[in-house]
């Protein structure tokens, strides 16, 4: 991975954790998009031939053409980023809080 790609991953992690990056689910299963003025960043979880999780970050320019692609095996940094995006986009924490609240009223 190049130094620019490493910086990209670190910036995505940081901006996602701070809530500045607003990811949206796409029509593809296990794929999220971060729409920017200059393009789109896609993060996707896939399975390899043996069923192991792998992650792909694709960078699209403003015309929708893929200009860069980074493939990760089971990289824990990218796996944690994906899980954070998944939880946020699907409101997992809010749903769990609602279920806990309902349990408390039983």
Compact summary:
By secondary structure, the protein is an alpha+beta fold. The protein contains three helices and five strands, in the order H-E-E-E-E-E-H-H. The protein has a domain at 23-65.
Shape: globular
- Radius of gyration, whole Å: 16 Å
Helix coverage percent:
40-55%
Main sheet: strands, sense, barrel: 5 strands, antiparallel
Strand content: 25-35%
What gap, in angstroms, lies between the N and C termini? 52 Å
Question: Given the structure, what is the number of helices?
Answer: 3
Q: Strand order, biggest sheet?
A: 1-2-3-4-5
Write down the overall mean pLDDT. 91
Structural class computed from helices and strand pairing: alpha+beta
Helix and strand succession?
HEEEEEHH
Number of strands: 5
Poorly predicted spans: none
Please, could you describe this protein's structure?
With 106 residues, the chain is of the alpha+beta class. It has a domain at 23-65. The chain is built from three helices and five strands, in the order αβββββαα. It has helices at residues 3-18, 76-89, 92-104; strands at 24-25, 31-35, 39-47, 53-61, 66-72. A five-stranded antiparallel sheet has the order 1-2-3-4-5, covered by helices on one side. The longest helix is centred in the N-terminal third of the chain and has 16 residues, at 3-18. The chain is globular, with a radius of gyration of 16 Å. The termini are far apart. The mean pLDDT is 91.
């Amino acid at each position: 991975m190049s130094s620019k790609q490493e910086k990209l991953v670190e910036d995505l992690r940081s901006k996602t954790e701070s809530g500045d990056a607003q990811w949206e689910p796409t029509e593809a299963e296990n794929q999220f998009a971060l729409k920017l003025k200059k393009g789109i960043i896609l993060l996707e979880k896939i399975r390899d031939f043996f069923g192991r999780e792998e992650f792909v970050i694709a960078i699209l320019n403003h015309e929708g053409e893929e200009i860069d692609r980074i493939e990760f095996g089971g990289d824990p940094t990218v796996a944690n980023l994906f899980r954070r995006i998944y939880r946020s986009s699907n409101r997992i924490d809010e749903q769990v809080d609602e279920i806990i609240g309902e349990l408390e009223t039983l």
